[in-house]
Amino acid sequence: MRALLVEDLDAVGSAACDAETHAAALRAAGWTVHTTIVGPAAEGADAALAPPGPPPLTRDASLGAGLADAVRRARADAVFVASAAPGGGDVGARLRDAACAWWWPTAFTVTPDASGALESLPGDARRDPTALAVAEMPRGGRGLLPLWDGDFVLSPGPLQGDAGRIALEAFARLDDEWSAVDFVVLAHPDAEFESTARRLGIGARVHFAGPATRGAEHAWLNSTSALLLGGNAPLSGGLVLRALACAAALLPCGANGVPGAVRERLASLGCAPLAARTRDEAAHALTRALSRDALTEQARNAGRRVAAEFGADTLAARAMARLHVVRPERRAA
Question: What is the C-alpha separation between 286 and 222, in angstroms, rounded?
Fold first, then answer.
């Protein structure tokens, strides 16, 4: 059976190399896989990790024709759209008429239960973005070298809404003991939150470093004192697992949205993060993380144990549990 995997790079922490992980899961379940990518072209270190094949498709007027051509070239019996967007978003909408097409959830989102053009994978009623992800560890070399001089806390994506304000306000409430710690945001500069940081008196210590490549992400995760989830942009399930594998202290800020979804999933996996739903909770949790107290170390160790369950060596078994039943006759007309 031939499958077309459409890897949509629409989440914080997604990269072209994720397509190979997802293709490996499909192959383990008995599929011959062709891959195409939707999103920005891989650059720098990520380019070497991208799967072979045609250049990525882009979200413009040519997307529909590009997807149709990919289906024809693959002679696909089924299409799998690996995407953060419910139902595969705009990519899924363009493939809704395919004989057999499925949405493969890859990220935590604000509306995980929203409907879309495609049904989610059978056996994945939770729409779990970690189910078929891999918590791969850095392989050494440049990916392990620190990218920041000194102690820092990290946001893996843009700061947004209440969660972003809670993250900044918690950082601003740290005692003078931590005055040398910086806050690095892996996103482009944001005028609103730069202004908020200045108002809180921490403007000189908040740095927008831009999105990270997969290789750089490893270095950030290995070096940070705490990982603050302070936004509602779709967040890759694989990124969350990689953070656990790196023993990063995860602090989902705010009560709802993407941070709330991550908190709920981590709790279900047995590695509930420190409470950071309010400014005061987040400030207390951040102080604990910087101090590396016993509760923080328990959470870090629990996360490491969970990450070990999502290694590449377990991917085949997890794939068989979800993908072996997917066949064209399973898809309603």
Answer: 17
